[in-house]
Amino acid sequence: MMLRHKGVLAEEEGSALMTDAPADVSTLTFEVALAELEKIVARLEQGQAPLEESIEIYRRGEMLKARCDELLRRAEARVETITVGADGAATGVRPLDPE
Length: 99
Prior knowledge:
alpha+beta; two-stranded antiparallel sheet; 2 helices; 4 strands; disordered N terminus; exonuclease; cytoplasm; exodeoxyribonuclease VII activity; hydrolase
């Protein structure tokens, strides 16, 4: 049985699925958001959740995915590549081209 808890779902049996998770995903770290997203995917793949619950956790999953994407874009923007001259010595850094 699923219960509402702090704006998200929590399983009555005490599973770690989304318990005590903040309703606002904007403060979550990448690792926390990804872990919760993985739990949501597993729950949905089981196909055991009622329709309304499935819709609600799917929406939560979309928010978590967007948060993970945002944090990855920020991380990519901070990564730099060391440039090397013809003699093999480091000459500086430039932003990493993600593609």
